[in-house]
Design a protein that fits this description.
Elements: H1 11-23, H2 29-39, H3 52-83, E1 97-98, E2 101-102, H4 106-116, H5 128-131, H6 137-151
Antiparallel strand pairs: 1-2
Helix pairs in contact: 1-3, 3-6
């Protein structure tokens, strides 16, 4: 019995493709068109015209990038744990806990990233290349952590 593979990208692939683009901060039309053109060897710039195989390969690649970017974001969050950037009760100043673990203050983290990060945007909007390297957001947080440890 033969398995039929559709010629065109299906709706589940289309949703996954666009969600991954958004997750990676590649949601402007030029980025999307460039990715589609690369995946189709220049045949089209429209994701609706991608074949099932082209879409499948592209989604696999984007998932890999998304996982890498999330690993880099977790490095920033690790620094925030070490810095003690946790949500506290405004009246008692006690740490807010979830599953007996302190909850990171994402509002504070996003505020810092927006005001002081090179990208001037919330953490989840940073692309991998903006997070890594000398001068990247991870470097900024590591330097802040190092300065705090040296001050103690």
């Amino acid at each position: 019995m033969d398995i039929l593979i559709p010629d065109k990208m299906n709706s589940a692939q289309n949703r996954a493709f666009h969600k991954l683009l958004n997750d990676l901060g590649l949601n402007n039309p030029e980025d999307k068109e460039n990715i589609v053109r690369g995946a189709t060897n220049g045949r089209t710039g429209s994701s609706r015209q991608m074949s099932w195989y082209e879409a499948d390969e592209t989604i696999r690649g984007l998932r890999s990038q998304s996982e890498d970017t999330n690993k880099l974001r977790r490095k920033v969050l690790s620094c925030c744990h070490q810095l003690g950037w946790y949500v506290r009760d405004p009246e008692t100043n006690e740490l807010q806990l979830r599953n007996n673990k302190p909850v990171l203050d994402m509002e504070r983290i996003d505020s810092y990233c927006t005001k002081h990060g090179k990208g001037h945007k919330p953490l989840n909007e940073y692309k991998a290349e903006e997070l890594r390297g000398n001068g990247g957001l991870i470097f900024q947080f590591e330097m802040m952590l190092k300065n705090r440890l040296n001050a103690q």
